[in-house]
Specification:
Layout (H helix, E strand, L loop, with lengths): L1 H5 L16 H12 L4 H11 L8 H12 L4 H14 L11
Helix pairs in contact: 2-3, 2-4
C-alpha cells in the first residue's frame, strides 16, 4: 500500500496472481479499505467485479479487518480525523467533512 500512496492520483494499477481470484481480490479489497471503504463494502465491491465469490474466506476477512484497524486502514484514519476535529473544536456534525 505504501507504493500506491506514492503514485499520482489518477494512476491505474494492475494487480494479478496466477488464478486472478484469491490474492488479487484480497489486495483489491485492501486497496479500497485504504481508500476509505469498510471491510464489508470493499469485499462487496471486489466480489461484484470478479467471477469468484469464494475468495473472501474467514481468514482473509479477518486479515482485512485487521488492516482496516491498522494505522493505514480506513477505520484508523476515520478515528484520527475525529480526534483531530475534536481537538480543533469542530462540531460533531461536521467531523466527517474535515
Amino acid at each position: 500500500m505504501t507504493l500506491l500512496e506514492t503514485l499520482p492520483e489518477e494512476t491505474k494499477v494492475l494487480i494479478f496472481c496466477e488464478s486472478g481470484q484469491g490474492r488479487t481480490a484480497f489486495m483489491g479489497a485492501a486497496y479500497w479499505i485504504a481508500k476509505g471503504l469498510t471491510t464489508s463494502a470493499a469485499i462487496t465491491r471486489i466480489s461484484a467485479a470478479c467471477s469468484a465469490t469464494d475468495w473472501a474466506t474467514a481468514e482473509r476477512r479477518h486479515l482485512l479487518d485487521d488492516y482496516a484497524w491498522s494505522p493505514r486502514g480506513a477505520v484508523s484514519q476515520l478515528l484520527w480525523k475525529k480526534r483531530k476535529a475534536y481537538s480543533l473544536g469542530i462540531p460533531k456534525t461536521n467531523w466527517l467533512m474535515e
